[in-house]
Amino acid sequence: MNNISIKNSQEIEKMRISGKLTAEVLEMIEHYLSPGITTSDIDNICYNYIINKQKAIPACLGYNGFPKSICTSVNNVVCHGIPNTSQILKKGDIINIDISIIKNGYHGDSSKMFYIGDISPVANKLCYTTQQSLYTAIKLIKPGIRLFKLGKKIQEYVEKRKFSVVREYCGHGIGKLFHEPPQILHYLGNDNGLTLKTGMTFTIEPMINAGNKEVVCEKDGWTIKTKDQSLSAQYEHTILVTENGCEILTYQHKEKIQPVLINE
């Protein structure tokens, strides 16, 4: 636990601000999403909002060489989709928009699925299941809970509904750094003995496939797709462990869960 950052009250306030701004970007961009918009358009709108309106920094831009301010992952793209001018959204598409910002030296990180017009029943069930799997894990969080139980809960929920959990990517601690210890698995891994403590901040971000769990990386070195070309969905929140539960720092208005939870 020595290398896991426990945030003090001043740091928590900064994390709340970063989380709120991250959520605001996701709420803002929804109004622009309709058939005909390109993922490059979406990136430009978010960049301008973060820089000019929020006076914040898009954390993805230049991170390990990533070329854009946000990630836009459409249909069978699992994560890290690169916005581009040739990718035009059409009716029936599902898209994950992943926003990470830096404000006052601290990070916020969140993503959600958006529907472009009416979507298929499979896509609808997949997105709903993915969001609910995130919620089921959040409802477990409190000091003293073993970390591995979060991934166990997500995997059980998802596989019961005949979907699969991507193994290659995970949630992570977050604060001054974009990615800090610990890693947050979304499936049942080994119990490494880690327990949650008040003041920990981390993301939970399950990536769920309609088909098999296997993924492939495109030649650009970033875009991850389902190997079987099935649909994929992801929801992500930045979470603070409180004295008796947790707080969703990237809470958005349409959430079907409370922003602060007391978990018995």
TrEMBL record:
HAMAP family registered for this protein in UniProt: MetAP_1
Keywords assigned by UniProt, alphabetized: Aminopeptidase, Hydrolase, Metal-binding, Protease
This enzyme's EC code(s): 3.4.11.18
Cofactor note: Binds 2 divalent metal cations per subunit. Has a high-affinity and a low affinity metal-binding site. The true nature of the physiological cofactor is under debate. The enzyme is active with cobalt, zinc, manganese or divalent iron ions. Most likely, methionine aminopeptidases function as mononuclear Fe(2+)-metalloproteases under physiological conditions, and the catalytically relevant metal-binding site has been assigned to the histidine-containing high-affinity site.
Protein name in UniProt: Methionine aminopeptidase
Annotated GO MF terms: initiator methionyl aminopeptidase activity; metal ion binding; metalloaminopeptidase activity
Binding site for a divalent metal cation 2: 109, 172, 205, 236
Residue ranges of every copy of the Peptidase M24 domain listed in the record: 13-243
List of residues binding substrate: 80, 179
UniProt: a divalent metal cation 1 binding residues: 98, 109, 236
Phylogenetic lineage: Bacteria, Pseudomonadati, Pseudomonadota, Gammaproteobacteria, Enterobacterales
Subunit description: Monomer.
Named cofactor requirement(s): Co(2+); Zn(2+); Mn(2+); Fe(2+)
GO biological process: proteolysis
Reaction equation(s) it catalyzes: Release of N-terminal amino acids, preferentially methionine, from peptides and arylamides
Alphabetical list of NCBIfam families matching this protein: met_pdase_I
Gene Ontology CC entries for this record: cytosol
Its job: Removes the N-terminal methionine from nascent proteins. The N-terminal methionine is often cleaved when the second residue in the primary sequence is small and uncharged (Met-Ala-, Cys, Gly, Pro, Ser, Thr, or Val). Requires deformylation of the N(alpha)-formylated initiator methionine before it can be hydrolyzed.
Superkingdom, natural source: Bacteria
Xref: Gene3D superfamilies: Creatinase/methionine aminopeptidase superfamily
Family: Belongs to the peptidase M24A family. Methionine aminopeptidase type 1 subfamily.
